[in-house]
């Protein structure tokens, strides 16, 4: 009964906002959906070790929520939570980029590693070994592994990175391209289908532990601490496995984007 009343109240708020532009109704919708902001921000930041104030991330995410409420069109037939999640993630990432807290050298190193994974795994048609990637980068193996460690303890590497923008100007994230195929999608396209195919193939050939980290973290919402307990590994090891897996995925996507442009 209470749930029904809550749904009716929410529906009334949407009507007041979208039909009458009642700002009090909009503000009430923001308050009602703040738990979604906390959920998205917590999931995004669960693997980050850098000193980022959680309240600042919530503020960034709330701006995304407000934008989602103002842009949401119920006539398109998809769930508000799905649409809002995109906006919240995008707002957090935009806010972090504006702070410019990631050293330029680390950004450069990340791009080089991503490119090496993309080229090697396209050539080999399998997951590249650490030794192979290090050799391609003309980097001693210990130095390469140290670089992975530096990247794994920064919030630079994430499936929450923006892959592209759709025709409506909405950000499409890497993680949106590999979500559960049974989940409701706002829209489908040939390009998204191609991205899913590439990611599925890359996921299938990931080393077992890397694949488990990705599946548990992004499909099952496990924190890195939980994954460490399940796999019997240290938290830092899980973080490094996550970093390597993400660069394999991002490398494959980078190559796909080049092919789409050619």
UniProtKB/TrEMBL annotation:
InterPro entries: RNA_pol_sigma-70_dom, RNA_pol_sigma70, RNA_pol_sigma70_r2, RNA_pol_sigma70_r3, RNA_pol_sigma70_r4, RNA_pol_sigma_FliA_WhiG, RNA_pol_sigma_r2, RNA_pol_sigma_r3/r4-like. Residues 56-69, 223-249 form the RNA polymerase sigma-70 domain. PROSITE patterns: SIGMA70_1 (PS00715), SIGMA70_2 (PS00716). It comes from the Bacteria. Keywords: DNA-binding, Sigma factor, Transcription, Transcription regulation. SUPFAM superfamilies: Sigma2 domain of RNA polymerase sigma factors, Sigma3 and sigma4 domains of RNA polymerase sigma factors. CDD domains: Sigma70_r4. Sigma factors are initiation factors that promote the attachment of RNA polymerase to specific initiation sites and are then released. Belongs to the sigma-70 factor family. PANTHER family: RNA POLYMERASE SIGMA FACTOR FLIA, SIGMA FACTOR F FLAGELLAR. NCBIfam families: FliA_WhiG (TIGR02479), PRK06986.1 (NF005413), sigma70-ECF (TIGR02937). This is RNA polymerase sigma factor. It comes from Tumebacillus lipolyticus.
